Amino acid sequence: QQANQLKPIQVKLVLLGEAAVGKSSLVLRFVNNEFIDNKEPTIGAAFLTQKCKLLDKIIKFEIWDTAGQERFHSLAPMYYRNAQAAVVAYDITKAASLDKAKSWVKELQRQANPNIIIALVGNKLDLEDQRQVPKEEAQLFANEAGLLFTEASAKSGEFVMEVFTEIAKKIPLDS
Ligand code: GDP
């Protein structure tokens, strides 16, 4: 009976953010626990699934890694339509990437499912010595906009699981 209750809850999750902030790398770390340096950029759509087990539920993420790159912007609404969760990533070593992340958040809040869970992720935390974006600045925006917020590194793996478990915790049991 316990096993029955833990039928996976399917959750569509989209990744958004400026090109090269590390969206694909974050997914690769979460799904395969690996990192590939100087990875070829994702062309077109990549679709991966990964389960996240919590005490009271299992979330099966269907992850869409696609629309972040500028040339796909016009396709974005098609990708985030029906998404229950979004990871909006920026690169802590590139100030402009936070501006881009903010504009994605605003677009999602205008156009996506009103209950969408949005996590803002500052990636490349391993490059602390090249940091351009103060953590407090991103945290403040996240608080004001009602987002989850984490700094993480796809390269070292630090805090990547936390991004997805924090989202999983916010998914209602009856969804
Ligand atoms: P995407 O275009 O947003 O999907 O970005 P990619 O995942 O393709 O990553 C872009 C580049 O940044 C690649 O050369 C990655 O190896 C590198 N990269 C991604 N994540 C990290 C990270 O956490 N730290 C460092 N130092 N480099 C990263």
Can you describe what's shown?
This protein has 175 residues and is of the alpha/beta class. It is 33% helix and 25% strand. It is built from six helices and six strands. The protein has helices spanning 2-5, 23-32, 76-80, 95-111, 135-145, 160-170; strands spanning 9-17, 46-53, 58-65, 85-91, 117-123, 148-151. Strands 2-3-1-4-5-6 form a six-stranded mixed beta sheet, with helices on both faces. Strand 4, helix 4 (95-111) and strand 5 form a beta-alpha-beta unit. The radius of gyration is 15 Å and the shape is globular. The model has no long low-confidence stretch (mean pLDDT 90). It binds guanosine-5'-diphosphate (GDP). Keywords: Nucleotide-binding. GO terms for molecular function: GTP binding; GTPase activity.
Mean pLDDT: 90
How many distinct helices? 6
Number of strands: 6
Strand content: 15-25%
Distance between termini? 19 Å
Order of helices and strands: HEHEEHEHEHEH
- Helix and strand content put the structural class at alpha/beta
Biggest sheet character: 6 strands, mixed
Shape: globular
> What does the radius of gyration come to?
15 Å
Q: List low-pLDDT spans.
A: none
In helices, the fraction of residues equals 25-40%
The side-by-side strand order for the widest beta sheet comes to 2-3-1-4-5-6
- Quaternary organisation of the protein chains: single chain
Q: Which small-molecule ligands are present, each listed once?
A: guanosine-5'-diphosphate
